[in-house]
Specification:
- By secondary structure, this protein is mainly α.
- Strands 1-2 form a two-stranded parallel sheet.
- Strand 1, helix 2 and strand 2 form a beta-alpha-beta unit.
- The protein starts with a helix and ends in a 16-residue tail after the last helix.
- This is Mur ligase C-terminal domain-containing protein.
């Protein structure tokens, strides 16, 4: 997942989604092994805010992914 994101995105932010009983820092670490240029921001709200800021300031499109059929989680 991280490798593909890094291949096709100008910027990548790795954040938490729904770790259930897994360690969210470990999940982020495992993704970052394949996406070393990504920003790591544990809090989803903070990650989205940072993504909006980057997209606005650099004239980019922001894709917020990971919730599937759920309506939201901030």
């Amino acid at each position: 997942m991280g490798r593909i994101a890094q291949m096709y995105a100008d910027k990548v932010i790795i954040t938490d989604d729904n770790p259930r009983d897994e360690d969210p820092a470990k999940i982020r670490h495992d993704i970052l092994l394949h996406c070393p240029d990504a920003l790591e921001i544990g809090g989803r709200r903070e990650a989205i805010e940072k993504g909006v800021d980057i997209a606005y300031n650099e004239g980019m499109i922001l894709l917020v992914a990971g919730k599937g059929m759920r309506n939201f989680k901030l």
